[in-house]
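Hypothesis: this fold can be encoded by more than one sequence.
Test: take the structure tokens below, design a sequence, compare later.
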């Protein structure tokens, strides 16, 4: 995956929003993008916990 600048990525988000979008819609898209990138980085750096361990910890089946 080619790394592009934040400005380029922001323009892509803007280009993909419908014309009637609100500031909240834009902020949501930016937040989702940031959260996904943070999760990918954590995964690559080994800062994740297997879902089975989490389920056991919280008593989920």
């Amino acid at each position: 995956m080619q790394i592009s600048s934040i400005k380029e990525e922001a323009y892509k988000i803007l280009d993909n929003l419908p014309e009637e979008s609100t500031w909240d819609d834009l902020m949501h898209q930016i937040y989702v993008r940031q959260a996904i990138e943070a999760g990918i980085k954590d995964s690559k750096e080994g800062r994740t916990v297997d879902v089975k361990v989490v389920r056991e910890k919280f008593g989920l089946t």
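The CA atoms of residues 4 and 21 lie 24 Å apart. Residues 6-57 form one domain.
Hypothesis status: open.
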